[in-house]
From TrEMBL:
Signal peptide: none annotated. One of its GO terms (cellular component) is membrane. InterPro entries: AB_hydrolase_1, AB_hydrolase_fold, AB_hydrolase_sf, Peptidase_S33. Keywords: Hydrolase. It comes from the Bacteria. Belongs to the peptidase S33 family. Transmembrane segments: none annotated. This is Proline iminopeptidase. Residues 44-288 form the AB hydrolase-1 domain. GO terms for biological process: proteolysis. GO terms for molecular function: aminopeptidase activity. Pfam families: Abhydrolase_1.
Length: 301
């Protein structure tokens, strides 16, 4: 592991003082792939898994909420953001990369938090390595039900919430895009992930800054594999065998249907579910105090 300590100006905030100087480093997967990692804060380790797939880590604001409560460890998944642009884009490989981050930075046992696609990655990691996970936090995931797909409902709700921006989003979606157009399309699409539409574009712009590009090959490959896995494996049975505390958090205004998570909640032996009213897909942005309280109370268990 090569560590490169330096301050991250984008992480500075007018809120509480940072509990520890940021450290930024490269971690190597077991196949040599270089993974960008940042850790900050003090307390028990908490590894954060961003969504996508094919995006980069955007969980800095979430990490800052937990200063003094956890040593947060953020990373860009392979092929994404500041990590090496290298496959293969397979679920097993991403689980192995998460284990490398855990082993080289977090220690022998850690809490793991995943958001959206990252929630499924964190769940799969806990299933594969339960002895290495102390707590699992599943944020705005889409569940494990293979029979009641959530995506058609998401696509319909996406178009409804885009409203007057729908025509522009569809025009951008209909042809090959320049990097600037790719960013514009992403900002429009991400804006529907916030409940308060008056500030939604502002929040989406912040997510897209800096713009590190979307790895569409990674996105398509992993989404296809997850769909196949949910259809062909007994994920509910594997979740029933999972003996560790799980916190499921979502926003009531997420355009992904919340009933999609019911099967996961019912399958887990030791889970708590928290729904934050008035929040969308990124509940820590719109309900930061409630989100912090739910997570820190859970981590004290």
């Amino acid at each position: 592991m090569r560590a490169d300590l330096r301050p991250d100006r984008s992480a500075q905030t007018s809120g509480p003082t940072r509990a520890a100087i940021l450290s930024v480093m490269d971690v190597r997967g077991d196949d040599g792939c270089r993974l960008w990692v940042e850790q900050a804060g003090t307390g028990p380790p908490l590894v954060l898994c961003h969504g996508g797939p094919g995006l980069w880590d955007y969980l800095g604001p979430l990490a800052r909420l937990l200063d003094g409560h956890a040593r947060t460890i953020r990373w860009d998944q392979r092929g994404c953001g500041r990590s090496q642009r290298r496959g293969p884009y397979r679920l097993g490989r991403f689980v192995a990369d998460l284990d490398a981050v855990r082993d080289q930075v977090a220690g022998p046992r850690t809490a793991v938090l995943g958001h959206s696609w990252g929630a499924h990655l964190a769940l799969r990691y806990a299933i594969e390595h339960p002895e290495r996970v102390s707590h699992l936090i599943y944020v705005s995931g889409t569940g494990i039900d293979p029979d009641h797909g959530w995506h058609p409902h998401y696509k319909r709700n996406l178009r409804l919430r885009l409203g007057p921006q729908l025509d522009r989003w569809e025009a951008l979606s209909a042809h090959a895009r320049t990097p600037a157009e790719e960013r514009e399309r992403a900002v429009l699409q991400w804006s529907v992930d916030f409940a308060e539409q008056g500030t939604a574009l502002h929040h989406a712009e912040r997510m897209a800054t800096p713009w590190l590009g979307i790895n569409h090959e990674c996105n398509q490959a992993l989404n296809a594999e997850v769909r196949q896995e949910l259809s062909n494996s007994d994920m509910a049975g594997r979740c029933r065998a999972l003996d560790l505390p799980v916190l499921i958090i979502c926003g009531t205004e997420d355009i992904r249907p919340r009933w999609a998570v019911d099967s996961l909640h019912h399958a887990l032996a030791n889970s708590r579910r928290v729904s934050l009213a008035g929040a969308g897909h990124l509940p820590w942005v719109e309900k930061p105090d409630d989100f912090r309280r739910a997570v820190t109370d859970f981590l004290k268990q």
